[in-house]
Write a structure and sequence with these properties.
Elements lengths: L1 E7 L6 E5 L2 E5 L8 H14 L6 E5 L5 E6 L3
Parallel strand pairs: 1-3
Antiparallel strand pairs: 1-5, 2-3, 4-5
Length: 73
């Protein structure tokens, strides 16, 4: 499955909300040195109840808008 994700770094708390088929993810880590991307993978793995290695950032590594692939197999 591929999802469109909008990331807001340096938020006050970690949470995910879904609006119009787009996941909005709020992260406490800053967007430098890949810290926000690492926290994004951890948070999405908990949200979808899969292992971290089953989540891959397809595009948007350095952008707020990302395409995320989740492998359930």
């Amino acid at each position: 499955m591929i999802f469109s994700v909008r990331v807001n770094a340096r938020s006050s708390r970690n949470y995910i909300e879904e609006k119009d088929g787009v996941l909005k993810v709020y992260l406490t880590k800053p967007a430098c040195a890949g810290q926000a991307n690492q926290q994004l993978v951890i948070l999405l793995s908990q949200y979808f109840k899969v292992k971290k290695y089953q989540i891959k950032i397809k595009s948007g590594e350095k952008s707020r808008n990302k395409l995320i692939e989740v492998n359930n197999a």
